Amino acid sequence: TDLMGKKKEERAHALLSASSAKKWIHCPPSARLEDSIPEEESPYAKEGTLAHAIGELKLQRLFTDKNMTDRTYKSRLKKLQQDELYAPEMDGYTEEYADYVSGIAFSFPGAPFVAVEKRLDYSPWAPEGFGTGDCVIIYGGDLHIIDFKYGKGVPVKAEGNYQLALYALGAYHEFGMFFPVERVHLHIVQPRIPNTSSWSTTLKEVLDWGETVVKPAAEKAFKGEGGFHPADYCSGDTENYCRAGFCKAYGRCRATADKNMELMKKAWNKEQNQKNLPPLISWEEAGELLKEAQFLKEWVQNLESTVLNEIVSGGEVPGWKIVEGRSNRQISDADAAFAELVKAGYDEAILYERKPIALGALEKTLSKEHREILSKYIVKPQGKPTLAPEDDKRPAMVLQRVSAEEAFGGDNTYSEGGK
């Protein structure tokens, strides 16, 4: 079986995909708008697809294909490991995923129902809606939806997760007549951060959400109706659907452009409508302006990237052109150049410097067992001070009082507030 080919086929997105549910529920017409923009699969997405294929193979061997021999397993695993995106660390992270699933499956007094990489149809709530659930486990009145996230950018929460809740609706739609499901448990396994999250609710709550929230939004989204609703940037993680990387239309979305322009107009009009203002804005004003405009920079950068890609692809954007940026000099053939310098009498010691490879690259070359050896020597230095809104969930940093000698003789020391 070609696991990668199978996975690509099964993971073909529906218009109202589960992974973009937060987007089309909050901003219904975005679904049709995005559908008109070509899909570009990033290297990170391809890497995630490969990791999922390896994880799927391991779960198949544990739960859904008990007759799989060691020889068959090793042969299929070896084929996946020949992919150019494969890294040894994938084995360790997929083992963590398999261990998490096993911890749930083997916690019941009897054998549960387990489905791996299952296509789940939630079309009763969203027209033509379907998605692929990484792992579904049902035992008695408990339904578990487990999602394997290989990304290491944004931590994903299980609580109130739209994608997993739609998978739960799909699982109930297919298996509800066979199992007396009453409770729903959503799980996120994101080992590269690491981030493991779980959340439980009742089936009734999920069904009510499907009827009152999903169904009316899905009907509008499928027809391309409703209004565009750019996210409220100050609301934090709950509405991160409207940002670069989350929406293909973000760079050219008129509603987002209008919203951002309004932010700038608001700040300008406020200044113009007040007289006898001091030459320096107050710290209160600075904080208010920064909070309102914190995402303008990201939006402008994304707009610039969108225009650049259009021109590079052969299109035209009036008023803009491509110019050659700054570049650094390089040696075309370092081995040949250094060989001639050594022949000319230079010692190799002054031509090369020895330094360890980056930690991330090193971890990719090590097995899980050897990463454990390395972990004894890994420390995480204090991060540099970074601005964040007051409602950010991270604890505030507290600048420790230091003497003049310490302040001028070395780096200031910071610690996390409350710890």
Give the low-pLDDT segments: 6-11, 234-238, 411-419
Order of helices and strands: HHHHHHEEEHEEHHHHHHHEHE
Strand order within the widest beta sheet: 1-2-3-4-5
Strand content: 5-15%
Helix content: 40-55%
Structural class: alpha+beta
Shape type = globular
What about the largest sheet? 5 strands, mixed
Terminal CA distance reads 51 Å
Average pLDDT score: 85
Radius of gyration: 26 Å
Number of helices: 15
Please report the total strand number as a whole number.
Answer: 7
Which labels suit this protein?
about 425 residues, alpha+beta, two-stranded antiparallel ribbon, globular
Tell me about this structure.
With 419 residues, the protein is of the alpha+beta class. Helix content is 44%, strand content 11%. The protein is built from 15 helices and seven strands. It has helices at residues 3-10, 21-26, 30-35, 43-64, 70-81, 89-105, 162-175, 203-223, 254-272, 283-293, 296-312, 334-343, 359-365, 368-375, 404-409, and strands at 113-121, 130-139, 142-148, 183-190, 195-202, 397-399, 414-416. The strands form two sheets. The protein has a five-stranded mixed beta sheet. It has a two-stranded antiparallel sheet with strand order 6-7. α1 (3-10) packs across α4, α4 packs antiparallel against α5 and α4 crosses α6 (89-105). The radius of gyration is 26 Å and the shape is globular. Residues 6-11, 234-238 and 411-419 have low confidence and may be disordered.
Could you provide a short overview of the structure?
The chain contains 15 helices and 7 strands.
